[in-house]
Design goal:
Length: 151
C-alpha cells in the first residue's frame, strides 16, 4: 500500500489554520468530510479525538499522526496539514509538529489501517522527505514529495 493510494491532493492543507492539536484534528476531519472521503464527520472526529486523548499521536521528529477507526467511513482516508506555526502534539521528544497526517479508517479495515500508519512512519524517517516536506509551500509540492518517496 502507498500513501497516494489513499491520499487525494485535495486533502492537503498548506497552511493549516489551526494553532493547537484538537483544532488541527477538527480542521483535517472537516477537509475529509468536504472532499466526500468520510460519511459521518462527527463520528470520525469523536473517534480520532478519543484516540488522541488516550495516547498522544505526536511520534517525534516534528510529525503527528492522529488516527482512529470508526463506522463513519467506508474506506481509509488521509488528510495532511502543514501548520504555519508548529503545533504541540505531546511527542516524546518534546518537539512540536510541523506536519500532521490524519488517518480515518473503518473498524473492519484493521490491516490497511496498520499498513497506512507504517507507511507514513517509514516515509517520515527518510531525511530527504522531511526536507522536501519542510520546503513544500503548496499541496502540489507536498504531494509530489510523497510520490517521489514512494517510487
Amino acid at each position: 500500500m502507498k500513501i497516494t493510494d489513499i491520499l487525494n491532493k485535495s486533502c492537503i492543507r498548506i497552511p493549516l489554520q489551526a494553532t493547537e492539536s484538537i483544532q488541527a484534528i477538527e480542521e483535517l476531519v472537516n477537509v475529509l468530510h468536504e472532499q466526500g472521503k468520510i460519511d459521518d464527520r462527527d463520528e470520525v472526529l469523536k473517534a480520532i479525538i478519543t484516540r488522541e486523548q488516550t495516547r498522544s499521536t505526536g511520534i517525534g521528529e516534528g510529525l503527528a499522526v492522529p488516527h482512529g477507526k470508526c463506522h463513519g467511513c467506508k474506506e481509509p482516508a488521509i488528510a495532511i496539514g502543514k501548520p504555519s506555526v508548529p503545533i504541540d502534539f505531546g511527542g516524546k521528544d518534546g518537539r512540536p509538529c510541523e506536519l500532521i497526517f490524519l488517518l480515518a479508517s473503518p473498524v473492519d479495515k484493521m490491516g490497511p489501517h496498520i499498513q497506512a500508519l507504517a507507511r507514513i512512519s517509514r516515509t517520515w524517517l527518510a531525511p530527504e522527505f522531511r526536507d522536501a516536506a519542510a520546503h513544500s509551500d503548496t499541496p502540489d509540492e507536498l504531494y509530489n514529495a510523497i510520490l517521489r518517496q514512494e517510487t
